[in-house]
Protein backbone atom coordinates (compact mmCIF):
# COMPACT_ATOMS: atom_id res chain seq x y z
CA UNK A 1 0.00 0.00 0.00
CA UNK A 2 1.61 3.23 -1.17
CA UNK A 3 1.31 5.94 1.46
CA UNK A 4 2.29 8.96 -0.66
CA UNK A 5 2.22 8.56 -4.41
CA UNK A 6 3.21 10.92 -7.21
CA UNK A 7 2.72 10.83 -10.93
CA UNK A 8 4.52 10.92 -13.20
CA UNK A 9 7.82 9.56 -11.93
CA UNK A 10 9.74 11.08 -14.85
CA UNK A 11 8.83 14.11 -16.89
CA UNK A 12 10.87 15.35 -19.84
CA UNK A 13 9.57 18.41 -21.60
CA UNK A 14 10.54 21.42 -23.66
CA UNK A 15 11.12 24.89 -22.33
CA UNK A 16 7.96 26.99 -22.38
CA UNK A 17 5.56 24.08 -21.88
CA UNK A 18 3.03 23.76 -19.06
CA UNK A 19 3.01 20.59 -16.97
CA UNK A 20 1.36 19.15 -13.87
CA UNK A 21 2.49 16.72 -11.20
CA UNK A 22 -0.07 14.91 -9.09
CA UNK A 23 0.23 13.76 -5.50
CA UNK A 24 -2.03 11.66 -3.32
CA UNK A 25 -1.68 10.42 0.25
CA UNK A 26 -3.74 7.73 1.97
CA UNK A 27 -2.39 8.35 5.48
CA UNK A 28 -5.23 10.58 6.57
CA UNK A 29 -2.80 13.46 7.17
CA UNK A 30 -4.04 17.02 7.21
CA UNK A 31 -0.90 18.66 5.83
CA UNK A 32 0.77 18.21 2.47
CA UNK A 33 3.88 19.77 0.97
CA UNK A 34 5.81 20.27 -2.21
CA UNK A 35 9.60 20.30 -2.14
CA UNK A 36 12.21 20.90 -4.82
CA UNK A 37 15.55 19.11 -4.71
CA UNK A 38 18.05 20.59 -7.09
CA UNK A 39 21.18 19.13 -8.65
CA UNK A 40 23.17 19.96 -5.51
CA UNK A 41 20.71 17.80 -3.53
CA UNK A 42 19.46 20.74 -1.50
CA UNK A 43 15.85 20.06 -0.45
CA UNK A 44 13.75 23.19 -0.19
CA UNK A 45 10.11 23.56 0.73
CA UNK A 46 7.91 25.30 -1.83
CA UNK A 47 4.37 25.06 -0.52
CA UNK A 48 2.37 23.59 2.31
CA UNK A 49 -1.36 23.02 2.52
CA UNK A 50 -3.30 22.19 5.66
CA UNK A 51 -6.72 20.73 4.99
CA UNK A 52 -6.87 22.34 1.53
CA UNK A 53 -5.71 25.73 2.81
CA UNK A 54 -2.35 27.22 1.78
CA UNK A 55 -0.24 27.82 4.89
CA UNK A 56 3.34 28.02 3.62
CA UNK A 57 4.30 29.72 0.40
CA UNK A 58 8.03 30.17 0.10
CA UNK A 59 9.60 32.46 -2.46
CA UNK A 60 8.59 30.55 -5.54
CA UNK A 61 7.91 32.04 -9.00
CA UNK A 62 4.20 32.45 -9.63
CA UNK A 63 4.58 30.09 -12.59
CA UNK A 64 4.19 27.41 -9.91
CA UNK A 65 0.63 26.97 -8.71
CA UNK A 66 -0.39 24.30 -6.21
CA UNK A 67 -3.96 23.05 -6.08
CA UNK A 68 -5.54 20.95 -3.38
CA UNK A 69 -8.97 19.58 -4.38
CA UNK A 70 -9.22 17.73 -1.06
CA UNK A 71 -6.92 17.03 1.85
CA UNK A 72 -5.64 13.80 0.31
CA UNK A 73 -4.45 15.44 -2.90
CA UNK A 74 -2.01 18.23 -3.67
CA UNK A 75 -1.13 18.85 -7.30
CA UNK A 76 1.52 21.15 -8.70
CA UNK A 77 1.07 22.97 -11.98
CA UNK A 78 4.02 24.69 -13.63
CA UNK A 79 3.57 27.20 -16.44
CA UNK A 80 6.17 28.26 -18.99
CA UNK A 81 8.80 25.81 -17.87
CA UNK A 82 12.39 27.04 -17.73
CA UNK A 83 15.72 25.19 -17.76
CA UNK A 84 16.24 26.05 -14.10
CA UNK A 85 13.07 24.17 -13.16
CA UNK A 86 14.86 20.88 -13.83
CA UNK A 87 14.98 19.11 -10.47
CA UNK A 88 13.34 16.36 -8.47
CA UNK A 89 10.02 17.43 -6.98
CA UNK A 90 8.88 15.64 -3.85
CA UNK A 91 5.43 15.64 -2.38
CA UNK A 92 5.11 14.91 1.34
CA UNK A 93 2.49 14.78 4.06
CA UNK A 94 2.57 15.06 7.82
CA UNK A 95 0.19 14.66 10.72
CA UNK A 96 -1.14 17.90 12.16
CA UNK A 97 -0.65 17.50 15.84
CA UNK A 98 2.83 17.25 17.31
CA UNK A 99 1.45 15.92 20.57
CA UNK A 100 0.25 12.81 18.85
CA UNK A 101 2.54 12.20 15.95
CA UNK A 102 5.52 14.54 15.79
CA UNK A 103 3.85 17.27 13.78
CA UNK A 104 5.36 19.11 10.86
CA UNK A 105 8.78 17.51 11.12
CA UNK A 106 7.42 13.99 10.75
CA UNK A 107 7.13 13.90 7.01
CA UNK A 108 6.27 11.06 4.68
CA UNK A 109 7.63 11.62 1.20
CA UNK A 110 6.46 10.42 -2.16
CA UNK A 111 8.96 8.78 -4.52
CA UNK A 112 9.65 12.03 -6.37
CA UNK A 113 9.12 13.30 -9.89
CA UNK A 114 12.28 13.87 -11.89
CA UNK A 115 11.61 16.84 -14.15
CA UNK A 116 13.96 17.58 -17.02
CA UNK A 117 13.41 20.71 -19.06
CA UNK A 118 15.20 20.74 -22.43
CA UNK B 1 25.08 32.06 8.17
CA UNK B 2 22.79 29.33 6.84
CA UNK B 3 19.76 28.47 8.95
CA UNK B 4 20.78 24.82 9.12
CA UNK B 5 24.31 23.64 8.34
CA UNK B 6 25.79 20.21 7.93
CA UNK B 7 29.22 18.95 6.97
CA UNK B 8 28.59 17.59 3.47
CA UNK B 9 31.19 14.83 3.85
CA UNK B 10 31.61 12.32 2.43
CA UNK B 11 32.44 10.37 5.53
CA UNK B 12 34.08 7.14 4.41
CA UNK B 13 34.39 4.63 7.23
CA UNK B 14 34.94 0.87 7.50
CA UNK B 15 32.14 -1.47 8.42
CA UNK B 16 31.82 -1.82 12.17
CA UNK B 17 33.13 1.65 12.90
CA UNK B 18 31.36 4.30 14.94
CA UNK B 19 30.65 7.54 13.13
CA UNK B 20 29.09 10.78 14.30
CA UNK B 21 28.09 13.98 12.60
CA UNK B 22 26.55 17.23 13.69
CA UNK B 23 24.06 19.72 12.40
CA UNK B 24 24.01 23.33 13.59
CA UNK B 25 21.00 25.64 13.48
CA UNK B 26 20.81 29.41 13.78
CA UNK B 27 17.29 30.02 15.14
CA UNK B 28 17.33 29.60 18.89
CA UNK B 29 13.51 29.47 18.89
CA UNK B 30 13.50 26.20 16.93
CA UNK B 31 11.46 23.56 18.69
CA UNK B 32 11.58 20.27 16.83
CA UNK B 33 14.50 18.37 15.39
CA UNK B 34 14.75 15.28 13.25
CA UNK B 35 17.18 13.14 11.30
CA UNK B 36 16.20 11.83 7.89
CA UNK B 37 17.98 9.38 5.65
CA UNK B 38 18.04 9.63 1.87
CA UNK B 39 19.35 6.87 -0.34
CA UNK B 40 20.63 7.66 -3.82
CA UNK B 41 17.77 8.60 -6.16
CA UNK B 42 15.17 7.89 -3.47
CA UNK B 43 12.95 9.98 -1.24
CA UNK B 44 14.01 11.08 2.26
CA UNK B 45 12.73 8.88 5.06
CA UNK B 46 12.41 9.76 8.72
CA UNK B 47 15.15 8.10 10.74
CA UNK B 48 14.42 9.49 14.16
CA UNK B 49 13.17 12.47 16.10
CA UNK B 50 15.62 14.22 18.41
CA UNK B 51 14.39 14.83 21.92
CA UNK B 52 15.82 17.20 24.49
CA UNK B 53 16.92 14.30 26.67
CA UNK B 54 18.52 12.50 23.74
CA UNK B 55 17.21 9.27 22.32
CA UNK B 56 18.46 5.96 21.08
CA UNK B 57 17.10 3.55 18.51
CA UNK B 58 19.21 0.47 18.19
CA UNK B 59 22.61 1.49 16.82
CA UNK B 60 21.52 5.11 16.36
CA UNK B 61 21.73 7.81 19.02
CA UNK B 62 20.52 11.36 18.55
CA UNK B 63 21.38 14.25 20.83
CA UNK B 64 20.27 17.86 21.09
CA UNK B 65 22.44 20.62 22.51
CA UNK B 66 20.28 23.72 22.80
CA UNK B 67 22.97 25.87 24.38
CA UNK B 68 25.30 25.39 21.41
CA UNK B 69 22.44 24.99 18.92
CA UNK B 70 23.34 21.70 17.33
CA UNK B 71 22.02 18.19 17.00
CA UNK B 72 24.11 15.10 16.49
CA UNK B 73 23.69 11.61 15.15
CA UNK B 74 25.89 8.73 16.27
CA UNK B 75 25.90 5.43 14.44
CA UNK B 76 27.56 2.49 16.18
CA UNK B 77 28.71 -0.75 14.55
CA UNK B 78 28.04 0.70 11.11
CA UNK B 79 26.71 -1.57 8.37
CA UNK B 80 27.10 -1.36 4.61
CA UNK B 81 23.38 -0.58 4.45
CA UNK B 82 23.95 2.60 6.48
CA UNK B 83 25.52 4.20 3.40
CA UNK B 84 23.24 7.11 2.57
CA UNK B 85 22.88 10.86 2.95
CA UNK B 86 21.70 11.99 6.38
CA UNK B 87 19.61 15.15 6.51
CA UNK B 88 18.81 17.11 9.62
CA UNK B 89 15.52 18.95 9.89
CA UNK B 90 14.66 21.87 12.14
CA UNK B 91 11.17 23.21 12.59
CA UNK B 92 8.61 24.53 15.06
CA UNK B 93 5.65 22.81 16.67
CA UNK B 94 2.80 23.65 14.36
CA UNK B 95 2.06 22.66 10.79
CA UNK B 96 2.59 26.28 9.75
CA UNK B 97 6.13 26.37 11.12
CA UNK B 98 9.03 26.91 8.77
CA UNK B 99 10.66 23.59 7.95
CA UNK B 100 14.36 23.72 7.18
CA UNK B 101 16.28 20.77 5.79
CA UNK B 102 20.05 20.68 6.02
CA UNK B 103 21.93 19.96 2.82
CA UNK B 104 22.89 16.51 4.09
CA UNK B 105 25.97 14.58 5.12
CA UNK B 106 27.03 11.75 2.84
CA UNK B 107 28.09 8.58 4.59
CA UNK B 108 29.80 5.74 2.80
CA UNK B 109 30.55 2.48 4.63
CA UNK B 110 33.26 0.32 3.07
CA UNK B 111 33.64 -3.45 3.59
How would you describe this protein?
The complex is a heterodimer of chains A (118) and B (111). Chain A is mainly beta. Chain A is built from 1 helix and 11 strands, in the order E-E-E-E-E-E-E-E-E-H-E-E. In chain A, a hairpin with a 2-residue loop joins strand 5 and strand 6. Chain A is globular and about 35 Å long. In chain A, 36% of the residues are buried. About 4% of the residues of chain A have low confidence. Chain B is an all-beta fold. Chain B contains no helices and 11 strands. In chain B, strands 2, 4, 5, 9, 10 and 11 form a 6-stranded mixed beta sheet that branches. A 5-stranded antiparallel beta sheet of chain B has the order 1-3-8-7-6, with no helix packed on it. The termini of chain B are far apart. At the A-B interface, strand 4, strand 5 and strand 10 of A face strand 4, strand 5 and strand 9 of B.
End-to-end span of chain B in angstroms?
A: 37 Å
Please tell me how large the radius of gyration of chain B is.
Answer: 14 Å
Multimeric status of the protein: heterodimer
Q: Stretches of chain A where pLDDT falls below 50 for ≥5 residues?
A: 98-102
List the helices and strands and how they pair.
The complex is a heterodimer of chains A (118) and B (111).
Chain A: E1 4-7, E2 10-13, E3 19-25, E4 31-37, E5 43-50, E6 53-57, E7 64-70, E8 73-78, E9 87-94, H1 98-101, E10 108-109, E11 113-117
Parallel strand pairs in A: 2-11
Antiparallel strand pairs in A: 1-3, 3-8, 4-5, 4-9, 5-6, 7-8, 9-10, 9-11
Chain B: E1 4-6, E2 11-14, E3 19-25, E4 32-38, E5 44-50, E6 55-57, E7 60-65, E8 70-75, E9 84-91, E10 100-101, E11 105-110
Parallel strand pairs in B: 2-11
Antiparallel strand pairs in B: 1-3, 3-8, 4-5, 4-9, 6-7, 7-8, 9-10, 9-11
Amino acid sequence: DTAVSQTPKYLVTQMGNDKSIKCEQNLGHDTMYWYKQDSKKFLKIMFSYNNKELIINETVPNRFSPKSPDKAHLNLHINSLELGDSAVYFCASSPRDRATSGGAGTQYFGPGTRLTVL
Amino acid sequence: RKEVEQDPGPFNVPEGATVAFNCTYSNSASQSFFWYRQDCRKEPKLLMSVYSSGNEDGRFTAQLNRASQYISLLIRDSKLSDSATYLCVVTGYSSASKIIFGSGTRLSIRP
